[in-house]
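FW: tagging you since you asked about this chain on Friday. Here's the raw sequence from the shared folder, copied in full. Didn't touch anything.
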Amino acid sequence: MPAAKDGQNYKACNDGTCEVLIRGKAMLDITGDKSTVTVVDGTLKITDGNGYVSLSGNGMSSWGDSGGPLHTASLKYAEGDTAVLVLTTRK
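HL: got it, structure written out here
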């Protein structure tokens, strides 16, 4: 498993840019939006008040509100209930 730059320091995601290790379930504050991240069977799911995105394999997904920041999530690694999430945000 590759190392995550920010380890399990989920506060690193507060500005919208981080690389974190997720085991099972974590709560992230992404630029003020509270999100729940879960990993099951190598699939990572990010859920917030507007819906969710699901990633597996080398997956990548982007989401955002009209006129708001654009978040992009990708998987650096995922297996079982463990994943390395790479998150970037453009304002």
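FW: The chain is about 0% helix and 60% strand.
HL: agreed, and The chain has one domain: 10-90.
FW: great, closing this out.
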